[in-house]
Design a protein that fits this description.
It contains ten helices and seven strands. By secondary structure, it is an alpha+beta fold. A hairpin with a 4-residue loop joins strand 6 (302-305) and strand 7.
Length: 321
């Protein structure tokens, strides 16, 4: 009986905290701010910031989840995702009254962040499974479909932001090892964009060769348009290499499939052309496929070009100023 009352009290306290934290807006952070903090990193300051910022972000997205259609909320996979978010929120609000001046609290906080990250490692697949469960047992009209897509876009963007904050803290102050000595957490201040493109292409090419026994070649062109830089100077930018790699890897996989299936009866496959252009404000990575059609089913950031009869897939990365 006492245990039940204690659990109910904890749930009631968590609901009050959820309402409180959901009233705040998440802080907008740039890569420059991450780098500036990383150059003079202080674990105590990071603790005080994240113990509020992470619950705010979790509370905001949890409120949006609660607004989903009832027939989706009762799907087993969606219920599981909700339970993960509730548990993570409760784990983090425990630290709202703790001081960051003790080593024990800082270490426990770092372990909690790792547990939260591990708990949410399969959120993307599980939420997608929940949507599939809804479609299997109910009819989804266009209005609901559009609303779901809008929610999923915000939901996954929120997840990326939360994982970015957690990874920065655990890489700088925990036992996680950064990818390279020059990295500031997960950020490479001098990320060599061409190398990331080549790495993503080679791994996608390996899969394409395994499935289709051939693959289109890569034609990579870069232009550095920054004032005072030579046109073909290797392009570097402060960015998260793992994020850029993942996006490009998925784009290359879809692009190779489009080329191989559209030219299935040919022995000559057009190349995949990638242009990297660095300006004073933006970094543009453009993947161009020649002689394909809409049936090739290319995914994100695609735009049909009537002049060249090809697809452009644009990836714009805003540079920090």
């Amino acid at each position: 009986m006492k245990l039940t009352l204690r659990l109910l009290a904890d749930v009631g306290k968590a609901l009050k905290s959820l309402d409180l934290y959901s009233q705040y807006n998440p802080s907008a952070l740039s890569i420059k701010q991450f780098i500036d903090f990383g150059n003079n990193a202080c674990e105590e300051k990071s603790f005080y910031f994240l113990r509020k910022e992470l619950p705010v972000r979790l509370a905001n997205i949890m409120k949006e989840i609660n607004l989903l259609p009832e027939n989706l909320l009762i799907m087993p996979s969606v219920e599981l995702v909700r339970s993960w978010y509730v548990q993570s929120f409760m784990d983090l609000v425990e630290f709202e009254d703790h001081s960051g001046k003790t080593r024990e609290v800082l270490e426990r906080f770092c372990k909690t962040l790792i547990n939260v990250r591990n708990r949410h490692s399969n959120v993307v697949e599980t939420m997608a499974q929940g949507v599939m469960e809804l479609r299997d047992c109910d009819t989804v009209d266009n209005t609901t479909e559009n609303s779901l897509q809008y929610f999923l876009d915000r939901f996954y963007m929120s997840r990326i932001g939360i994982r970015m904050l957690i990874n920065q803290h655990t890489l700088m102050f925990g036992k996680d090892l950064p990818g390279h000595i020059r990295h500031i957490g997960a950020i490479d201040p001098t990320c060599k964009i061409g190398l990331v493109v080549a790495d993503a292409y080679e791994n996608a090419q390996f899969l394409c060769d395994q499935y289709y026994v051939d693959s289109p070649v890569l034609e990579l062109v870069s232009h550095n348009g920054v004032s005072g830089a030579a046109g073909r100077t290797p392009i570097e930018s402060a960015y998260v290499p793992s994020h850029l790699y993942y996006i490009l890897f998925e784009l290359f996989k879809n692009s190779m499939r489009a080329v191989m299936e559209y030219h299935a009866d040919s022995d000559n496959y057009p190349c995949i052309k990638v242009s990297i252009v660095l300006g004073n404000e933006d970094l543009s990575i453009k993947v161009y496929l020649r002689n394909t059609t809409e049936k090739s089913s290319l995914t994100v950031f695609h735009q049909w070009n009537e002049c060249t009869k090809g697809y452009y897939i644009n990836l714009l990365c805003k540079l920090h100023q």
